[in-house]
Predict the 3D structure of the following.
Amino acid sequence: MAVARPARRYAIRLGVSMALYVVSMIAGVYLVRQQHVTGPILWPLALLPGLGIVGAFYAIGMLILETTDEFLRMLIVRQVIYASGLAMAAASIWGFLENFELVAHIPAFYWAVAWFAGFGIGGFVNRLTLGASGRC
Amino acid sequence: MKNRLKVLRAERDWSQQDLAHRLDVSRQSVNAIETGKYDPSLPLAFRIADVFGLAIEAIFLRD
């Protein structure tokens, strides 16, 4: 059925992205801490986990583009709106608090974590208000 | 927006899944439209009308 195919492709893309993230993360930590790798090789080691996360964003974007069921697509878009609102609000507020040295510094990749938390909250809100939470 | 989807389905003895299959959408979509939680786009409303062989205004009613 046409409804299921985008969800399947999403699962594959997300799985590949998360595999890249986990493997590159473990390899990077091992090489830097155990093998004391330094120099230019640190660039790809640092970039690969980030690209894994980019892959997850890509998978969600493609899910929106490929989902032909308009109601399911709306559910995902609502989740993305919640995720973006939460992550951008948290980053903005924390940034100014940090600027005035009221809170500790947070590495920027945690805003992606905040985004995915917002994505989950969006799914929960969809479930509460529309009785459905989409496919991711 | 109110609609007569549930009645029209019942008249034909179709489940939500049956209607979803005919429309090539998910059962969740049919349920959301039927319960008034989601108003379909005009193209989907026309497809629904075609499936039931009725005019759109015979299925969807003004609030």
User: Anything to note?
Assistant: The helical segments of chain B are 5-12, 16-23, 27-34, 42-52. The longest helix of chain B spans residues 42-52. The first strand of chain B starts at residue 2 and ends at 3.
